[in-house]
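Hi all, a correction to my earlier message: I attached the wrong file for Solute-binding protein family 5 domain-containing protein. Here's the right sequence:
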Amino acid sequence: MIPNLTPYQFNLTLANQILNDAGYKMGPNGVRVSPSGIPLSYTLYVINEAPEEVEAANIIAGWWSQIGVKATVDAVDAGTLASIIWPNFTQDFDLWDWFTSPALPTLLDVFLANQTETGTSDSGYNNSAYDALYGQMITATNYTTVYKDAYELQQMLYQDLPYIMLYYVKSIEAYNSQAFTGYFDNMTGGPFSDVNWYTFIDLQPASSPQSSSTTVQQSSSTSSVSTQSSSSSSPQASSSSTSSAPSPSTTSSGAISTPLIAGVVVLVVIVVLVVVALSLRRRPTT
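and the right structure:
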């Protein structure tokens, strides 16, 4: 929350009063008309893949009708809505959501002027003072300046209202820290938020050196073996170790000892000497 900033309150009575004071008179059909004679009749676009957002759009249209503003809800797919918005911004209003992390002020770049045609801005917001302050914020070398600039940028958005924030949804992420290690979860938003992409680089199966060795050697082992504890009393670990290739620590039953190698070499030498001696005995005299 921005310090000393009060959220706008929902008040249909006050909305009617503001429109009356501004000269927007109620027409015979229940739709207000601007001082220049233009009816306050708009299309509210919403993405049809999100039922809760379609329902929210219909609720908003109902509220607007109570203050003399007509809103026609048009639910379309995301591609259609994008073609309506960019690059000409021909829409009246559109409703959709953003998924981002509060750890860094990444969403603030959506309102830059250079994001209107080929970027991510769907409001067409253009404020040179905002752009200059944003540039100052992202080049700051200390957190105090970053926070100060970020708060001031949000103050501009609060006053100009390119967006009207309806609600904030808290997401839940479930992950198994016993099966995998390397979660980069020390930032607000969790290990899979958009600023924590290190998780997808560092994540790896969690295993001790012993269980890891068994997994590599026993390529046909099941998932239950690969995530098994390193305890030797485990039936799965016992089973896989008997069928796998011998490890470096295998005893004499699975490895060739040094005395045995020496004995083999001596035996070979003796055989060679015997063969040579026999051949000399059979050589004819001259």
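Sorry for the mix-up. DSSP finds ten helices and seven strands in the chain.
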